[in-house]
Amino acid sequence: MNKILISESVIKENVQYIPFDIEGENEAFEDMDMDEYEAMEVADAIAKKSGISILSDKELNGLLLDNNEIIGALWISNDNEEFSFDIAISPKYRNKGYSHILIKKCIIHVRRIK
Known about the structure:
- The protein is of the alpha+beta class.
- The protein has helices at 36-49, 98-113, and strands at residues 15-19, 58-66, 69-77, 85-89.
């Protein structure tokens, strides 16, 4: 069985994950030129460009930023009986290990709610 290793060296230091809560205070948006609703639109556009259809049972859970530019997003289902998630990464940031960050955050979220 072949293992795929993700090189952490390709992940830029200024890329950060921020949790997303439409009803809460998101301090990260103070540094950006957009509000939470605009961020949701950008995340949805990245998913659409990637050919990913986000179902209505999923909510935006987190954003991946590079110098305050949204480059990826994580959506998680709120259904207590079944768990599912979607991630989307902007095309120019693919194959660099960024999806790994989103998957790690998803696993942390699942462990917290179980």
